[in-house]
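4.2 Preliminary Data

To establish feasibility before requesting continued support, the project team ran the inverse folding procedure on a target of 577 residues. The structure was first converted into the token representation described in Section 3, and no sequence information of any kind was made available to the design step. The complete token record follows.
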């Protein structure tokens, strides 16, 4: 017995020593790895990239937990930039902005952006967890619970407005969003979707069918699958801001038969804009149309598309019964009601045979283009990266693997032969580099919806940012022109100016067909949830003459490359300043 005990004691001593040795080895390896990474960042800075430049990421960040061997590739030789320009014959300038330098520089930036993103995600998780705990204790349900009701994506129960928050949705958050817009009812579904409206459904579902827990509030129910938890919204607490704005759309020629064109109408003596807008809002229509003492409610349609506006003088006497226009024109207002005819989206039921990229430089409007494509086609778009802010606001394709082929197209900011040749075709979205650089800088310091401060613009980061990202703007387009198999080039400015024709062209490129009414619905919801808010700085010019000279050379090069591939050159407003 003593002998067996002695052997056991000897074994435990050896095991203890082995564990101590392994722990020491693990700590030493970690220290060496940390020193190596620190040295790499210092080396990157010595090449011209400041420490702060490890921070910028494209507007759809890199996928969480995915390490792609493509990011470790050696720099690739790219197409020659600025060929034949006298200004580049100087040796120092040619070496500083040569194609090889461009590609090497952009490769370094991509690695730094990926490294920063993983650090950013790890730092944010504890903060988000703490926020959820606080939300659980402070949430208050101000509304009156009306019951559980059925809901169908093809025919929404509450049609006023739609909001998504796939990580932080609470009952109070939904109620406040609807109450601020003066809706009567707020409904929650799938634990993360919020719907507003003024009409309560006629028949209720079984209470147990609303069984989805709110994403941001444990213990609270936020509807279910095709089920709405509906609340009657109480008055907002004092000081809350209402957003019940009515927007004047203009004077338009009236359709031949107003009653057939618009599904709801009201005849009211002394009719006012407020009376008509309130009537149409309660009927849950996005348009309020006034002709004399008559009020009509409806949607933009093929019969009444709002594309051919008339001179406002034709509507100047509209509220007099003896209008000189004799009923040929009408005033149109946008109510706060959202046009929900195109808000339903889903993943492809079968894997796409064609792998399509939606490629752009950061700040070129990729998120906006995704919003338009999703609402026009009814299918989600994917992303080469993962952006939690976009996912939370309804871009569900953010969490789907970018190679799943369940999305209509995949967002990417990547360039280079390998990254491009993975796709069968691509929509290449190009924006004025001056606007793109400012948009991406705003996103870096103020998120998707804000503006960078004066302090940010006047700091050292701005010139460093322009110096690095301007070259990426040029090389991104040149690489896709060189290696892309099948391209549709879309200029952001053209899409903004002629939305429906350009969007129809994009949808046809994706091999999809859509109705005219759905495109008109997209146009009615054109801004989405990611239009920057707040006042812009008037006559703000952050670019120095040296920056302009650099960017202008890139503009000329890209314009020449586009024409060389039989594409339309850059819009006139790109012309060097």
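Position-by-position output of the design step:
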């Amino acid at each position: 017995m003593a002998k067996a005990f002695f052997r056991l004691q000897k074994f435990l001593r050896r095991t203890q020593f082995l564990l101590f040795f392994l722990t020491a080895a693990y700590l030493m390896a970690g220290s060496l790895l940390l020193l190596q990474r620190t040295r790499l960042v210092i080396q990157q800075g010595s090449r011209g990239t400041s420490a702060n430049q490890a921070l910028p990421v494209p507007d759809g960040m890199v996928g969480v937990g995915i390490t792609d061997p493509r990011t470790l590739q050696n720099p690739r030789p790219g197409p020659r930039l600025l060929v034949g320009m006298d200004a580049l014959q100087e040796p120092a300038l040619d070496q500083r902005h040569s194609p090889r330098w461009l590609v090497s520089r952009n490769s370094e930036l991509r690695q730094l952006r990926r490294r920063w993103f993983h650090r950013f995600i790890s730092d944010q998780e504890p903060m988000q967890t703490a926020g959820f705990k606080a939300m659980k204790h402070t949430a208050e349900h101000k509304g009156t619970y009306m019951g559980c009701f059925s809901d169908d994506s093809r025919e929404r129960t509450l049609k006023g407005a739609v909001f998504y928050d796939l990580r932080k949705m609470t009952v109070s958050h939904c109620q406040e969003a609807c109450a601020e817009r003066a809706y009567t009812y707020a409904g929650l579904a799938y634990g993360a979707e919020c719907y507003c409206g003024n009409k309560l459904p006629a028949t209720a579902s079984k209470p147990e069918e609303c069984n989805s827990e709110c994403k941001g509030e444990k213990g609270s129910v936020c509807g279910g699958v095709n089920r709405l938890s509906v609340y009657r919204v109480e008055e907002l607490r004092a000081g809350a801001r209402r957003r019940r704005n009515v927007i004047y759309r203009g004077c338009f020629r009236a359709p031949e038969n107003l009653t057939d064109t618009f599904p709801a109408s009201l005849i009211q003596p002394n009719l006012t804009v407020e009376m008509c807008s309130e009537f149409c809002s309660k009927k849950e229509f996005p348009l309020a149309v006034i002709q004399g003492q008559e009020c009509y409610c409806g949607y933009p349609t093929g019969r009444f598309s709002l594309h051919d506006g008339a001179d406002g003088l034709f509507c100047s006497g509209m509220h007099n019964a003896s209008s000189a226009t004799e009923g040929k024109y009408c005033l149109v207002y946008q109510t706060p009601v959202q046009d929900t005819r195109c808000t339903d989206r889903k993943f492809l039921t079968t894997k796409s045979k064609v792998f399509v990229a939606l490629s752009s430089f950061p700040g070129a409007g990729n998120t906006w283009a995704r919003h338009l494509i999703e609402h026009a086609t009814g299918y989600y778009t994917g992303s080469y990266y993962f952006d939690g802010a976009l996912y939370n606001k309804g871009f569900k394709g953010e969490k789907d693997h970018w190679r799943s082929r369940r999305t209509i197209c995949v967002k990417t900011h990547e360039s280079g032969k390998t990254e491009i040749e993975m796709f069968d075709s691509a929509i290449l979205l190009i924006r004025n580099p001056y606007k793109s650089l400012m948009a991406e800088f705003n996103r870096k310091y103020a998120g998707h919806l804000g503006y960078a401060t004066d302090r940010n613009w006047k700091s050292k980061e701005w010139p460093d940012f322009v110096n690095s990202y301007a070259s990426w703007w040029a090389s991104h387009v040149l690489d896709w022109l060189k290696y892309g198999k099948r391209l549709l080039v879309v200029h952001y400015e053209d899409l903004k100016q002629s939305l429906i024709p350009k969007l129809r062209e994009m949808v046809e490129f994706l091999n999809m067909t859509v109705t005219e009414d759905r495109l008109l619905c997209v146009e009615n919801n054109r801004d989405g949830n990611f239009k920057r808010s707040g006042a812009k700085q008037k006559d703000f010019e952050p670019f120095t003459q040296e920056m302009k000279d650099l960017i202008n050379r890139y503009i000329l090069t890209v314009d020449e490359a586009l024409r060389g591939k039989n594409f339309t050159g850059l819009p006139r407003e790109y012309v060097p300043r």
